[in-house]
Amino acid sequence: MKSGWLPVLFFLWMAQAEAAELVVSAASSLTDSLNVLKGIYQSRHPSETILFNFGASGSLEKQIEESAPVDMFISASMKEMDALQRKQLILGEPHNLLSNEIVLIVPRSNQASIQEFSDLSKVHRLAIGDPGFVPAGQYAKEILKFQGLYDLLENRLVYGENVRQVLEYVARGDVDAGLVFSTDALTMKDRVRIVMSAPKGSHESIFYPAAILKFSTHPQATREFMDFISGPEGKEVFSRFGFQIVEKHRVNPTEGDHHEN
């Protein structure tokens, strides 16, 4: 082989070595905002590829526990992140990025029959996320119990695999009402109507913690992406999609109770 090829081969080897493919498992309610941030980030880091795995936070947690090749996890509640930290699958400490709220929604065509939570006693079908896997469903169950409606409505509940599926059920008119994150409701404001937000103290505080996984193959590149989405540009994009920014990022999952009340 001619020596002139050696620099070229070395350059190609270095370029391949430096390329990073980051896998980020994230709550489905972050789909739109994270895809916008991905476009911005990859335009500045052409050697890096961000691959998203969106889904219910509980399902994503189970995938990670079963050794799914994930570099970063963003959950829609502390429960899943707590579980991963107890099993020592987190690199360092998780950071709270965002907050959100749960809202009661109805199909846009429904203009009068449901005006407040007490009106849910009249519905035939109410959609919420599966409380076993979907944080929005966990919060919804807490809200219904707080309102004294859970026992009455338990047999009328329609469970979604994630919050986006619940939103679609309501938008299509398959159910009378649903409980979703406000940020999801805003993505279909032409098809669903927000009746009201859940009362303060009716459910556990909503946070979106993010962490790098202990078995990440690109921890430094993942750290840089996390710094980007938690920085000024990330905050601007998340705010644009209706999320509330959490300024105090560091959390201690061992503290146990995350309730406001």
UniProtKB/TrEMBL annotation:
Keywords: Metal-binding, Molybdenum, Signal
Cleavable signal peptide: 1-19
GO biological process, one term: molybdate ion transport
Gene Ontology molecular function terms on file: metal ion binding; molybdate ion binding; tungstate binding
Chain residues that bind molybdate: 29, 57, 136, 163
Domain of life: Bacteria
Coiled coil regions in record: none
Subunit structure comment from the entry: The complex is composed of two ATP-binding proteins (ModC), two transmembrane proteins (ModB) and a solute-binding protein (ModA).
PANTHER family linked to this entry: MOLYBDATE-BINDING PERIPLASMIC PROTEIN, SULFATE-BINDING PROTEIN
Name of this chain's protein: Molybdate ABC transporter substrate-binding protein
Organism of provenance: Ferrovum myxofaciens
